[in-house]
Amino acid sequence: MKYSLVIPIYNEEKNLPELYRRISTIMNNMDGDAELILINDGSRDRSLQIFREFREKDSRVCYLSFARNFGHQIAVTAGLNFARGKVIVVLDGDLQDPPELIPSLIEKWRQGYQVVYAQRIKRHQESWLKKFPAFVYYRVLRSLADVEIPTDTGDFCLMDKSVVDLLNKMPETNRYIRGLRAWIGFRQTAVKFEREPRFAGEIQYTFAKSLALAINGLVSFSKVPLRLSTYVGLFAACVSLLMACLVLYWRIFYPESPLTGLAIIMMTIFFLGAVQLVSIGILGEYIGRIYEEVKGRPLYTLSEAVGFGERNKSL
Ligand code: UDP
Ligand code: MG
User: Fold this and answer.
1) Using 50, 70 and 90 to split pLDDT, how confident is the model at 298?
2) Which of 102, 210, 250, 264 holds its CA 20 to 30 A away from the CA of 218?
3) What's the pLDDT band for 315 if we cut at 50, 70, 90?
4) Beta-bridge partner residues of 123
5) Residue to mutate, 36, 90, 92, ligand 1, most ligand atoms under 8 Å from C-beta
6) What is the pLDDT of residue 148?
7) 128 in helix, strand or coil?
8) Per-residue pLDDT averaged across 65-70, rounded?
9) Contact present, 91 and 4 (Cβ < 8 Å)
10) Which ligand 1 atom sits nearest the alpha carbon of residue 92?
């Protein structure tokens, strides 16, 4: 097997026929055997039935089905676990990541890059409400993260089997694949592309899911938020010292006049209360992750794995 194409699917029945049409054209023109791995992330529509129909007429199609929705990152992880190709390409199932870019990714791989990620230079028909926070986020992440996570890249990428083997060895539950991929290193390069609008269907990444992914990226790759409360705490300590000096000065030089400033006191109490709550929240994010990781639960539960030979039986 030379190529594995990994596509996570959650309620994409409207996109699947067109996706298959475009992907199979690409696969037909590849210079080696290829497999298409579809992962059903607990879809509630006909996606899984459509996988079965594909499989009946095309033995290159293999699929996994989760016992429930585990989320996009975990779906990609499962696909990577099962991929057998020397070269693995990950893309979305809604045709926002154009399959026609795959040959240029492969071209870079031939030049000796182990990771080729697709970098968005433009997003078509996506609202400012998504684009602007994403723009800011990727830049904040780049400045805070311990590893250099390239801006404006998603999970659309090509990886060499050696990189995927390393990814598969990482046991962490809170997976931020684009970060882990950068962490691994080796020779990495970008291919620029314009992100197309969704072919059909609704966006599956709700605001809450996007926010969770964003926080996960920050917390998994940076300890700066933790330090932030230390810095704010130190700053507050300096301010309070200054205020103590002021009060002392007032008491010594104007002993008759009473100290006023209830508003300032209230504001200070509220401000410090807020700082403390935010700090506890940040701490909670990290502790929550420790808790998730020590439980050591499997990343997903499979109800079906079809087309993987011997591994079908390992369920
Ligand atoms: N997806 C998934 N599980 C989820 C949510 C999304 O497997 O819980 C898949 C979805 O089917 C699509 C990809 O992840 O193939 C990206 O999702 P979407 O297009 O909704 O998000 P975008 O990244 O475009 O904002
Ligand atoms: Mg999409």
Assistant:
1) very high
2) 102
3) low
4) 195
5) 92
6) 87
7) helix
8) 95
9) no
10) 15
Domain ranges (residues) in the chain: 3-222+298-314, 224-295
Ligand 2 centroid–CA 96 distance in Å is 6
CA-203 nearest atom, ligand 1: 20
Would you say residue 314 has pLDDT above 80? no
Atom number in ligand 1 closest to CA 70: 8
Closest among 24, 4, 198 to 85, alpha carbons compared:
4
Dist. CA 5 → ligand 1 center (Å): 16
CATH code reported for the domain at 3-222+298-314: 3.90.550.10
Distance 54 CA to ligand 1 centre (A): 20
What is the overall mean pLDDT for the chain?
89
pLDDT tens for each residue of 36-59: 999 999 999 999 999 999 999 999
Question: What is the CA(94)–ligand 2 centre distance, in A?
Answer: 5
Q: Long-range contacts made by residues 283-288, C-beta under 8 angstroms, separation at least 24?
A: 283/226, 283/229, 285/215, 285/219, 285/225, 286/219, 286/226
Distance from the first to the final alpha carbon of the chain: 22
pLDDT for 124-160, tens place per residue? 777 777 788 888 888 888 888 888 888 888 899 999 9
- Candidates 169, 168, 178, 202; CA nearest to 78 is 168
Ligand 1 site residues (CB inside 6 A) read 8-10, 12, 41, 69, 71-72, 75, 92-94, 96, 203-205
pLDDT digits (tens, 9 = 90+) for 271-292: 888 888 888 988 888 998 899 8
The CA 10 to ligand 1 mean position distance, Å, reads: 6
* Nearby residues of 171 by Cβ (< 8 Å), 6 or more positions away: 293, 296
Tokens of 124: 């078509």
Buried b (16+ CB within 10 A) or exposed e, 200-213: ebeebeeeeeeeeb
For residue 39, the ligand 1 atom closest to its alpha carbon is 7
Ligand (nearest to CA of 154): 1
